[in-house]
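Data card: per-record layout.
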Amino acid sequence: MKPETPYNDLPLLPPPRGVIETVSVLRQVGKTAAAIGELKGLANTLPNPDILLNAVVLREASASSEIENIITTQDKLYKALSSQNSQVDPATKEVLRYREALLSGYHTLQQRGFLNTNAIVRIQQTLEENSAGIRRLPGTALRNAATGSTIYTPPNDHETIQRLMKNLEDYLNEEDGLSPFIKLAVQHYQFESIHPFYDGNGRTGRIINVLFLVMKGLLERPVLYLSKYIIDHKPEYYRLLQSVRTQETWEEWVLFITKAVEVTALETIGKINLINALFEKTQEKARLEKPKVYSKDLLELLFIQPYCRIEFVSERLGITRQTSSRYLKELEKTGILTSQQLGKETLFVNEELFDLLKE
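The structure for this 359-residue chain is written out next.
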């Protein structure tokens, strides 16, 4: 396969079962399944599941965008989410669109129970804020950032791309007895190789990954921060993708992705334990030092939204703005919160939680 030649002969799924369901892969799948099972159960121990969902989605959005060299900070993201200030830099806006696309895809999945090509197109359109849809024009190629040389040219015929996407859709949704973790690796390779859009393929593909795990009932919410593993092993990730195309080294690729899921799940489990411990500590501090202000509902809000506006508390708890302001200022006196001025707005920051989430 020449890198400059469009890969219109990209094989349809599934690949031969014997090359993806090896002894080594099945051994790794067992470890991955155990880690994901523990994560799914532990996520339900949080005071409010949205605490983890918001945190992981923002981290995933930031990391997935970083792979495409779109860089912002957690501080900017939380400020942009919490504030009504419209002055948000372009990189932060792009990352917030990733968050919007992921959550939109998740809500669609909750309603319909399956992923199809139309849902994938909508995810990409939300990411890119355009309606170009599946590629119709030739000229798309993946190039080496340093040398400019072509590494891979995806299929360039519109009908071929549509046929490959329909095959991928069928593969995502069919029940064939194969471990979903193996199928996750296979579908991710195929989507990245089809490269169906002009822009946003990498980020769309990474959204599909976590939604696929939700669709298969392995997670209740998209709380797997998988992009960090890809960032940490970026050269290996791209090398293995290309190696499957040129040498059909499926086993190595499937091992990489299933290991990524295991490691990421274990890291998320650790994060949940830390969040739970911090919530209990904060709860005890507020109860002892500010018993007249303390309520579990208020503390949950401060963990769901580490950068909190007075209006957010007022709306969610159904209390006046004046009462919300008094509650937040009283908690600031204990050190649970610190206030920051952003233009004319005051944000109350749960700094211990924020430090924990950004690690």
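Known properties of this structure: DSSP finds 16 helices and five strands in the chain. The radius of gyration is 22 Å.

See the next section for split statistics.
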